[in-house]
Structures are given as structure tokens and as C-alpha cells.
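Quick question about two entries, pasted in order.
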Amino acid sequence: MMACAVVALTSCQCNRPQSTGGFDDSFDTLAVTERMEDDLNKSKTILYTLPSPIEMASLIKESNVKYDEEMLNDINKADKYTGTLKMAINLGMYSTDMSFASMFNQSQKTVEYFSALKDLSSKLGIVNLIDENTIARMEEKSTSKEDILKIISDVYMDVNQYLTENNRKNVAVMVLTGGWTEGLYIALGLVNDSPNQQLSERIVAQKLALATVLNILEENNSNGSDEDLTYLQNKMNEIKVIFDEVRIDLLGQVEAETNSETKTTFIKANCENEISQDILMMLKEKVTEVRNEFIQP
């Protein structure tokens, strides 16, 4: 399994203890402890995967928040990005922004982001993956939301596969890191002074996802020779310092079950987590700082 091949979605279902001593089966998160990470790595049941842009957008929408276009990266910046790092990171970010807009039925904005993706992909030398016919299909009123989401998902997968198969894994890692960072930024941006509990749980879940990001960066830059990946490692470690303050306790054994047809791995465990309002706001400030640096042309 190549470290940057995001071709499956890993989810984790943690059952939160209730005051009665029972468990709430509806609690669904990626959040696990380091012990859980170690167990999974040793048993080789966890793939190097992260929530796709669509999955992250879906998790945010399920938290009953409102669409806020101000949270998204400006489409007009697309043609201003130069250099592999900035283009790749923002390709990932635009993928997440597009998924977010689509999830909230913002059809015109979704098409605009898709066009921006097409331009950035071309500048990165990723050719023939996004054509005018696909854009035209997205603009058709008869195209359902489900079809649009499938188009977005397929293009994201195709870009990742193209980069991997053409020995550009480092660029694929940049795209992945950008997309994940944007998803976390949007989620944090929608948390106010009285945070949505479900959304907070989604944010806590990204502690494991960040560990995955750092593992992927390390595997693709083990000797530190890639300046762009080293830069990303440093930025992700700045975020990790704050995530390290988030408590996640594993209460039982880890189980992993993979559906070969859907290419989905479900990781199940009983756990509880805790994040204070202060830590949440610190995380929001740091991720915003890192993200804003990413989006500057």
C-alpha cells in the first residue's frame, strides 16, 4: 500500500460511556488513543487513509451547522498560485471547499470550484482528468446532488492515482495535506463560544487523522531532502502540539472490519474524549494561522 494512495475511507466508531454505564452507539468518530494507533499499526489493519473531502464535508453538515461561504478559499486566487507546493496544497483545499459547497446544495459555487480545480490541475501537469464535458454535466439542472458528489469523489481519486502512478507521490501528499487542513479549518471556524457537541467530536476525531498525515509526510521525506514536505511537517507539528492536549481514552479492545466492495474500513472501540473550550480555541487559532499561510499566493 502506497502511503499517499487515498483510495479508501477509514472510519472509527467509538461508543461514549453514558452516566448509566451503558454506551451510546450513535457516537461515531475517528478519535482514538495512541494505544489504539499502536494496536492498529501492529496488526496492519489500518491503511494510510484520511477522510476524503466529501466525507469531511458530510461530517460537518451532519453536525447541523449552517453553510458559510466566507469560510472557503477565494476562487479568484486560483490563477495566482505558483510553485508546486502552493498549487498542490490549494488543489486539496479547493477540493474540500467544493465538497462543502456541494454538500449544502450550492450548485453554482460547486461548478466554480470545479473550474478552479481544472486550472490548478493543468498547471500541475495533471492532464485529461477534468474536461469541459464533466463541467457541463455538473451545470445541468438534471444532474442530481448524488451524481455531483460522485463526480467530485471520482476526480479526487483520479488525481491522487495519477500522481501516485507517475512517481509524484510528494505532490499527492501535498494535495492530501491541503484538503485535510481545509476541512479542519472549516469545522473549527463553525465552532462558536457555545460549541456544537457533535462538531466538537468531529474535530477531536482529527487527532488520529493528524497522526496519519504526519506518518505519510515522514514516509515520503524520511531523509528530509524535500523542502516542501519538510515545511508541511513543521506546520503539522505546530498543530500537533495543541492536539496533544486533547484527552482520548480507550476503554476496550480495537476491532477493524473491511468491506471489500465499498473499500471502507470500520474501526470500532469503546472510548471517551475530552477537549476544553480553551484548547478548542487554541486549536482554532493555530489552524487558522497555518491555513492562512497556505492560501497566500
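Here is the second entry:
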Amino acid sequence: MKKIIVLGLFTIGLSAQSLQAQFLFGPQAGISYATLTGTDLSVNPKPEWHAGLLFDLGFGKHFSLQPSLLYSKRGYKYDYQTSTTTVVSSDTTITTYTTASVDAALGYIDIPVLVNIYFGDHKGFMLNAGPQLSVLLTNQSVATATTTVSTNQGTPKTTDPEKETEFKINPTDVSLVAGIGYKLPKLLLVYVRASTGFGKVQQDKTILKDGNEGRNFTFEIGAALTFGGK
């Protein structure tokens, strides 16, 4: 009986040591390009950045679970045009043209939980995929709307631009992340990945009157320093 207990404790100790030996952590950072999909808007991405902490818990030689905690900046620009024609009387028609310029500047807390598949023994080329929860932390987006009015198709008269400094964005988003990477035997890990959101991003109906809210799509390139492991 004592031998069985000692053998069991020894096995547990080896298992714990094995798991500990495959645990990695460290800082990660990179550049990001964000845009919107599922919309008719012509969106221009702005280069931004992301940074945070990476954790990697290995299971065997070729698999690991990799959660991260990141602060991610996302930015994009687009112009949006609408027109409305109102018949006032049989001989008077008023056409209103509205041009909105949106400059989105967003900051998210991203929590991706990825499954890694390594081609080598917890090193070399890797594939990964998994879900990501994003929580909106900062929103410094600005929408500038300019309106022109034309009566009976005459010369348009332009109004003063109106700025909306609190362009409304959904507070959370859930995405699917997938990518590739390469882990050196020691310290450095590099990655390229993309994430696509499932929910609508923009909430502002003042400008977006026809359902062009869009979904997040972000492309990222980055690197991480990994400590621990074997």
C-alpha cells in the first residue's frame, strides 16, 4: 500500500513538473490594421498597435492553449453620402444632400483564447485559432456631417459642418481569430493573424440610416518574448 501511495505521489509530481515545464508567459506587441466588413462603406484602415501579455500552457509536444490580455487600438476612416428629396408643392422640390466623414479611433481590451498546433516540439511553425472577447475601453471617434440643400435642382446651399464627437460604438464584440506563427527554441515568437467579428460595430443611427454598421475585421502582425518552458 505504501509503495502504491509513493508511486502515485511520484507520478503526480512528474506530471506537475511536466506541465510547469511547458508553461510560457511574456509580453507581446505588434501593429494592427482594422476595417469593417458586411457594409457598402468604402473604409480606409489606419495603422494602429496592440500590446499586452501572452500565456501559453502546453499539452504534449504539439498542442498548447494560449490566452492573452491585450490593449488594442483600432482606427479607420470613411465618407458616407445620402440624399433625400421632399416634394413641398406641385412646383417646389427640395433635395437635401448629406456627406458624413467618420474618423474612428477605438481602444479595446482583447481577450483571445487560442489553440496552438506546433509542427515541432513546442517550437517551429504553428497554426492557431480560437474565440476572442473584445470590450470597448475608449472611443475618440469623430463624425463630421456637411449638408447641402437644393431647391428645384438649383444651386446647392451648404450648411456649416456639424461635428458629433461621441460617435456611438457597440461596447462589446466577439470574434473568431486564426493565424500562423513561428516560435524559436528560446525566447522569441512571431505571429500573423486575423480576426473577424460576429456583431455589428457601429450604433449611430444619426448618420448610418440604412444598416451599414459593419463588423470588425482586424489584421495583426506581432512578436512576443516567451519566458519559462523547458
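Reply: The radius of gyration is 26 Å. Helices lie at 2-21. Hope that helps.
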